[in-house]
Design brief:
Shape: globular
CATH topology of the largest domain: Immunoglobulin-like
Order of helices and strands: HEEEEEEHEEEEEEEEEEEEEEEE
Largest sheet: 13 strands, mixed
Number of helices: 2
CATH class of the largest domain: Mainly Beta
Strand content: 25-35%
Radius of gyration: 25 Å
CATH architecture of the largest domain: Sandwich
């Protein structure tokens, strides 16, 4: 494929995505993503101990899934019982997952797509819109009376549309549960590299054979991308994860019960089966702040930004935790301030030690930054 054409198509896809209207499924509920403390990042080893700190109300269970293929109504825990927890770490653009499941028949002996599967779709900026090639009207002819519902536009090949669109602005992972003699998942679309380190990692623990019942633990993390192209990570743009941000996320459990038959049950967190190919059908997940028990009663923290380098003007922002009633800034040049978010002008080039002292009903705290603020 012509590289210039691929680039042009990619830019068209990004431009079209910029004007999508956000629309996420299940407006009655916003699911929560647990924030792990920076010193308690879960180890990817298939052991659930790291997740013991996650409160129970973060867990998503089978009674919150919809059976959108089989018509069986509520799930029978004697046949299939699933619990999912999702986490994140402030400062890392990663989503952590713990998937725990009991199945009365684990189907995973074949080398193809016929495999019990945990399928997830993530849209890190919640922009919505199609993430598979056939979903993009820009690359398919309009419907006409008597014509097939989806016919490719012969001016753009299906192959070029696939490479420019499929999995670029939102990503779909078919995670095999368990993966026997195959990669841990299929990254469905053009950026297949997203399932490899350093963008993803996974571990699975189980003790059953194909066709047997048993319990499985799957632990993994992925990196969501606002742009992930087929050319590799050199032009990729990670989704920036921040406190209280809403992301689009959906997952489904695909359950086979006969290795020789194509029938499957498809349990979906979204009410729309097409969530696998259109991020507008995903659910809203909120990246939660740290739970109070992981904070000290009062903690000092702050950030800074150069407003005008020529004038050596710096804006300081208080990011402290707890009930704070007083602030004292030492700018490292002999000047101080008691404002919460001061703007300070340095009179000469300097690389100072800047200190913030805070106080409140719970006591006092201090945070200094050594030579971070450089104005030379």
């Amino acid at each position: 494929m012509n590289s210039f054409r691929m680039l042009a198509l990619s830019l068209v896809a990004v431009a079209c995505g910029a004007f999508r209207v956000r629309a996420l499924d299940r407006p009655d509920i916003t699911f929560k993503v647990f924030q792990f403390p920076a010193d308690k990042i879960p180890r990817i080893d298939g052991n659930v101990d790291d997740w013991a700190m996650v409160p129970d109300d973060y867990a998503i269970r089978m009674d919150q899934f919809v059976d959108d293929e089989g018509g069986h109504g509520k799930a029978d825990p004697k046949n299939l019982d699933v619990k999912v927890r999702v986490g994140w770490v402030k400062g890392l653009n990663r989503l952590f997952f713990l998937y725990e499941a009991y199945d009365n028949y684990w189907d995973f002996s074949r080398p193809d797509l016929h495999n019990d599967t945990f399928e997830i779709v993530v849209d890190g900026d919640a922009s919505g819109g199609p993430l598979i090639d056939k979903g993009h009207k820009e690359f398919w002819k309009p419907e006409v009376v008597g014509a097939p519902a989806a016919t490719p536009d012969d001016r753009i090949s299906v192959e070029d549309a696939h490479w420019a669109i499929h999995g670029v602005h939102a990503q779909n992972y078919h995670i095999f549960t368990p993966a026997k003699d195959k990669d841990w998942c299929m990254a469905w679309g053009s950026p297949t590299w997203i399932k490899e380190l350093p963008w993803a990692n996974a571990a699975c623990a189980y003790d059953f054979k194909p066709g047997e019942p048993g319990r499985l633990v799957l632990e993994f993390w992925i990196t969501p991308f606002d742009y992930a192209g087929p050319e590799g990570p050199q032009r990729a743009v990670e989704s920036v994860l921040t406190e209280n941000k809403i992301i689009g996320l959906g997952f489904a459990v695909i359950d086979y019960d006969d290795v020789n038959k194509p029938h499957r049950d498809f349990w979906n967190l979204s009410r729309h089966h097409m969530m696998y190919g259109d991020a507008s059908y995903l659910c809203a997940f909120k990246l939660m702040p740290l739970e109070p028990q992981f904070h000290k009663p009062i903690e000092a923290q702050w950030s800074w930004k150069v407003v005008d380098m020529d004038r050596r003007l710096v804006a300081f922002k208080d990011l402290s935790y707890g009930q704070v009633t007083g602030w004292k800034w030492d700018f490292g040049d002999g000047e101080t301030s008691t404002e919460r978010n001061p703007i300070h002008q340095y009179k000469k080039p300097i690389t100072p030690v800047v200190i913030l002292d805070i106080e409140g009903p719970a006591g006092t705290a201090r945070r200094s930054k050594v030579w971070d603020v450089s104005l030379k």
